[in-house]
Amino acid sequence: MPPGTLFLSYQLTIDPVVDFTSGYHEKWLPIWEDFSCDWRGCWFNQRVEPPRRIIGDEVVAAGAKGILFRCISLDRT
After folding, report:
1. Which of 26, 51, 56, 59 could form a disulfide with 34 if both were Cys (CB 3.0 to 4.6 A apart)?
2. pLDDT tens digit sequence for 34-56
């Protein structure tokens, strides 16, 4: 059989989610400001749990299914 391409679409319902699309604001706990920090440096160099792990645990504990971030373009032109 010749190779082919399958086109699929999915519809997901994942309520509730934490909406972080507008970035960090003062209304968020200060740990959210560090979400994008270098987690490898925290874990391997400083031997501390990365903020994103703590935040993820808090989101799950609050009953949310995930965190929604805005899309960041990687266009380097």
Report:
1. 51
2. 877 888 898 999 998 888 888 88
